[in-house]
Amino acid sequence: MAGPGLQEKAIEAVVIMNTAIINLRMYPPTNAMIVKTIDRLYDMLQTIFEEEDALLLAESERSLLISGEPLSQKNREKPQVAIFLMLMINWGIKSIGFNKNLDKRELSLFLEIMGKKPDDVIKEKGLERIVLEGEMPHIRINQKVYVEMGKDRETVSGLDITDEDIIKYITTDDPDAALDPEKVKEMAKDPKWVSRIFQSAMHQLVDRDGTESNEKLSESMLQMLSAFDKISDHEEKEELSTLAAKSISDMDADFIATMMTQNMEGLIENHLFDQIVERIDPEKFELVAGKLHQALDDASMVENGLDSEKIESARQAYQHLMNTNRGVELQHQLEEKQAREKEEKDKKENKTREIKEKVHDFLNNLEGGLPDESAAKSLPEMVDTLYSEGETEMAETIIDRLTGKLQSDHSDIRGAASEHLVNILDHLSQERRTDIMTRYQEPVLTWIKSETVPTSAFRTICMQLKDLTQSRIREQRFADSLPILETFRFMASRQIEKDDQIQSTASDTLKEIATADIQDILLEEFRHDKKGRRNEAGRNLVMTAQYSINRLLDLLRESEASSERGLILNLIPEIGPAAAPAVIERIEESAPWYYLRNLVRILGRVGSEGHAKILAPLMVHDDLRVQKEALKSINNIGGTFKGEILLTALSGCDDQLKVTVVTTLGSLKHRDAVKPLVELFKSKLNLSEEMKVGLQEKICLALGNIGDREALPFLTEVSKQSGIFGFKSYNPKVKTAAVRAADMLSKI
User: Fold this and answer.
1) If you count Cβ atoms within 10 Å of the first and of the last residue's Cβ in the chain, which end, N or C, has fewer?
2) What's the rounded mean pLDDT across residues 675-702?
3) How far apart are CA 559 and CA 673, in angstroms?
4) d(CA 683, CA 695)
5) Is-contact 441 490, C-beta < 8 A?
6) Helices (H), 587-641
């Protein structure tokens, strides 16, 4: 049994099906609107199948049955039901069944067939056969339907009309030619039928809204109304007028205005126009009146190709509309509105005039130094009003003068000017504040860098610059954010000398700027260069180094791309000494060799003399690559500690590295190295003969460079042919180096 819930869903499915079939007669199945409509129908059927295994739509005695059950009175009267019944009758269909496993492809094929002319389909194979052969197993045509008829069922016999007939009847230029007049008159004897058919036709016309011009649609509607006016008696015309007015009043203001320009004189006993007026809501009524009034512009009408007859129709429609009670009321409202607007306009003009006079006095006072206190209090409102009234030039003149006072030699004048600027900014919208800070960025930054008094206004403007900088970074405008970041970075790092309070404010501002999301944006562009702004993003990271360094060092350890690690290794040194503490904190012998090597390399570029001792233990690290990098960095930053560190590392560093250490000790003339170098020369080294010779040669030369005559006996002995203890002679290169070094010492 079909309950009320199923019936309502089935009716909704019928409505959507009607729309799909009608549209398929005008558009191809691939049209987006068609696809969307079929999707809606399929979804509705699925909700029905959640409760029922099938949906059966059947025609019996020109009434629609849902799964064998008659419709409620309300649903029987719906025009969409009448349209669907006529569709079934025209096709000769007694029933259409949709089973639960129906797929969307089946549904689309079926609707495409229903969108064709019945005669063409019947001549081809017939609907039942096409459905059967068309791989639509879950759709059944003309199943037997068993139904118990209620006592209140009404039928209309002998009235044979199709939806195609209705469409022709309401759109043809000659309505009488569409149907047999005698047949129409016979059909019209049933008032219910007339009402039902009228609603169906009206519904179809309304559905065409948006697919054709208002002019064409209104003409079609007028034609339909004229046709029904001819076949209806007095009582029916009253009802038809009400139904038409309801449908028309629900449409948009443009269509209603166009419809009112149509000649409705004598139509449906002259009730239609007034009923439309009565049903329009107040807002739409005003819009319709406005559009009709606008249409009275003859020049515009002629320009749009409208003739004098159309112009006159518009004039009559407007006069008729405004002569109604609602029109008279609207006219009073418009007059009152115009009076209020004029009053408001006069007030604004007077206020603007007064403000301009105050601005003039303010600017004159400002020339002498500090602005007048009373004028200053009203300054924020003055500037806000000037911007609101479009007096942008005058508003900017005030701000120009104030920013100029920021460069005054007198702290009280700078303080007052900055305070006035803050008050103005606080009074404006965020968008306006951003515009002003952008326009006056250069003089404001100049003041920030030179100001010596840490006022509350100073801190507030710093926060305004913070907002501006973050906004630019979020917009990927990295080059534009740099000047502000550089200013605060130089102040925070005391590259621009400031007192503690101002320096602290600069540091706080940088911290406020460099939030996690801001760093994410900068790092993303720096790593991937999606916008081609890698260099600018990198400079932003350098300027926020205090907060970005740890993110960069994390990435240096985690990145698997050598190119990316290379970018970071080049970027961090640009931070300078400020990067050293974070780098030192991460230097641990247990760290992965590649990460440790990179940290050592960075420290060699940003560290100071005192940091060389931190690198000393790494000269004897297990990995030669770390040792080599440590030696390079110690050479870069070692200073007075360099010789001591290298001498300590001499015995423990890798044999391959000893040559470089020996050479460096010689160039440093480190006298404490004489004995250790001699001992190294004499020791057994696990080196190839070639490397051993090279090391011994460098030891001799280093002893010569150090310049301590204590090494002379050793060098003389090495230069002898027999070698030490008479065992063998040294390699000629070694003896040559020893002779050269001894010669150097003998001259001291």
Assistant:
1) N
2) 89
3) 42
4) 12
5) no
6) 593-606, 612-615, 624-637
Nearest Cα to 203, choosing from 38, 117, 60, 86? Answer: 86
Tokens 């460098």: give the residue: 698
DSSP string for 128-157: HHHHHHTT-TTEEES-----PPPTT-----
Given a cut of 50, whether residue 451 has pLDDT beyond it is: yes
Percent of the chain with pLDDT over 90: 28
Q: Is 50 exposed, middle or buried (0-12, 13-18, 19+ CB in 10 A)?
A: exposed
Strand partners, 140: 97
Question: Which one is predicted more confidently, 125 or 282?
Answer: 282
How far apart, in Å, do the first and last CA atoms of the chain sit?
124
Using CA atoms, how far apart are residues 28 and 14, in angstroms rounded to an integer?
Answer: 21
Residue found under tokens 């001792």: 613
pLDDT over 50 (residue 77): yes
The string of pLDDT tens digits covering residues 421-442 is 999 899 888 889 889 999 999 9
Beta partners for residue 652, in sequence order: none
Compute φ and ψ for 58, nearest 5 degrees: -130, 150
Angle at 285 between CA 279 and CA 288, to 5 degrees: 120
Q: Phi, psi at residue 335, to the nearest 5°?
A: -65, -45
Residue 186: what pLDDT? 57
* pLDDT tens profile 357-381: 667 767 666 665 555 666 677 788 8
Q: CB of 633 within 8 A of CB of 603?
A: yes
**For strand 63-66 and strand 69-70, is the pairing parallel, antiparallel, or unpaired?**
antiparallel
Task: Give residue for tokens 């019936």.
Answer: 7
Give CA–CA dist 44/674, Å, rounded.
Answer: 98
DSSP 162-212: -HHHHHHHHHSSSHHHHS-HHHHHHHTT-HHHHHHHHHHHHHHHHHTBTTB
Burial classification of residue 347, based on how many CB atoms lie within 10 Å of its CB (0-12 exposed, 13-18 middle, 19 or more buried)? exposed
Interatomic CA distance for residues 349 and 343, integer angstroms: 10
Task: Output the CA torsion sign for 268, 272, 273, 275.
Answer: positive
Please give the structure tokens belonging to residue 45: 């059927």
Of all helices (H) and strands (E), which one includes residue 60? Answer: strand 54-60
> Is the predicted pLDDT of residue 482 greater than 90, yes or no?
yes
DSSP character at residue 708: -
| pLDDT of residue 141 exceeding 70 | yes
Residues 6+ apart with CB under 8 A from 518: 470, 473, 474, 544
Q: What's the whole-number mean pLDDT along residues 137-159?
A: 49
Strands 54-60, 63-66: parallel, antiparallel or unpaired by DSSP?
antiparallel
CB 462 within 8 A of CB 487: no
Q: Are 676 and 649 in contact (CB under 8 A)?
A: no
Residues forming a β-bridge with 65:
58, 70
215-224 in b/e burial notation, b at 16+ Cβ within 10 A? eebbbbbbbb
CB 738 within 8 A of CB 700: yes
Residue type, position 163, single letter: D
- Apex 575 CA angle, 572 and 581, nearest 5: 85
CA distance 528 to 122: 65
31-38 mean pLDDT: 85
One-letter amino acid for residue 527 of the chain: R
Residue 549 corresponds to which amino acid? I
139 DSSP β-pair partners: 98
- CA 1 vs CA 56, 67, 98, 100: distances in Å: 11, 7, 16, 16
pLDDT of residue 624: 92
Q: How far is CA 38 from CA 3, 6, 78, in A?
A: 25, 20, 22
At 92, the pLDDT band (50, 70, 90 cuts) reads confident
